[in-house]
Amino acid sequence: MGVSTNNKRVFQEFRYIKIPDRRLISGLLYVNVINHNDNDNSDDLIQKLSDASTISNGIKHSNSFSNDGSTAGTFQDRGRIGMKHSFADYDCFVFHVAGGMTLSGGIIGPTTANTTYTGSTALHVNNFASSGNWVDGSGSLGTDADLTWKTLNDNSGANPFGDACSHFIKYHLISRINNASGHGLNQASRPNFYKSRPIHTQTYTAPAGVVNLADPSTVTNQYVLSHGIYDDKDTLGEDLTMASYGQTGHGSTEPFTRIDSSVRTAGESQAADGTISNNDGNTYYSPVDTIKIYGKHHLVIESHRNNITDTNDANYRKIYAVKTHITDFWDLVIDIGLRGNNPQGAATQTSNPDKAILKPQINVSFQPFGETASFDVSTSIHTS
């Protein structure tokens, strides 16, 4: 049984694709992430960490190399010094994405007892504002005073509004290919290397073949780290030699193991003393921890409290208003969770990363078939 970590510390990168309301889409989404070309003249990350005289605490305590924030040990030398294999630090995904988002239902108003306030006077009289400013310290009322503000009469402070808008995006991983899933469990004085989180795939099948049954379906789950075959021989079975793949010269003492196409049932394994068996050259680094794909529309609900700060006080009130609600388009969100640093640089990580461990280069391409002829891709959510 290996060591596991549930530490989900990622640095998020987003891509947004603007799509009209109630447009059914179906197509292939490609996501390519690679060690940035600024690092073209560098070794791959794992080799660089082995060779470095000092390594930042933000990396050593990150969830790539630590379960609980403890410092990593001596990094494994992969024998790739000077090979400049930073290009091998990539992760490529192909998803089938289908569905869309419906924005027709609109805002759902409160159904329990509530009070409505509109205008500056009402907000001042009921102690939500004073001298033209919100009493909770969030600044001037401005034009927000003219919004329709509501509060539940049970002084719970809960949001009285709902929204019927919903995304119905589903996706299925067709392929994921990287060079980073062969790492064995490092023990003793060596660091734990935690592979990126697998992409979850789910399939519903009929339990008894091609018949129409009322029986529950069978659900099969797979958790994919990587697909792909690496060829080192041609169709005649002849070795491709150094014309195709890197290798060290005769007599070299470097512990280099190239990626090969041997049939494998497991990645490398490592004993407590550091001895490696079943060497696997798929020991580079993936910049990606995981990817999520979903729909999102522009919805802004503002809230403010009155002059009572104690939420248990019977006079405590919190008001809400729908400030922005766009219902003619939505964004398909490609949420790329990059493997992030530990900004504390210490044994305990209490906040999310402020940067990715490896500077990435990200390319996203979507090829939909459906009612949407064109779309706009952005690094920020669309508001108009």
Tags for this entry?
22 strands; 4-stranded antiparallel β-sheet; single chain; 33% strand; 384 residues; 3 helices; elongated; mainly beta; 4% helix
What can you tell me about this protein's structure?
This protein has 384 residues and is mostly beta strands. The chain has a domain at 17-102 and 166-210 and 221-284 and 350-378. The chain contains 3 helices and 22 strands. The chain is elongated.
Give unreliable regions as ranges. Answer: none
Largest sheet: spatial strand order: 17-20-1-22
- Count the E strands: 22
Overall average residue pLDDT: 88
| Computed structural class | mainly beta
State Rg: 27 Å
Coarse shape? elongated
Spell out the helices and strands N to C. Answer: EEHHEEEEHEEEEEEEEEEEEEEEE
Strand content: 25-35%
Amino- and carboxy-terminal Cα gap: 51 Å
Q: Treating each run of at least 4 consecutive H or I residues as one helix, how many helices?
A: 3
Could you describe the largest sheet, including whether it forms a barrel? 4 strands, antiparallel
State the share of residues found in helices, binned by percent.
under 10%
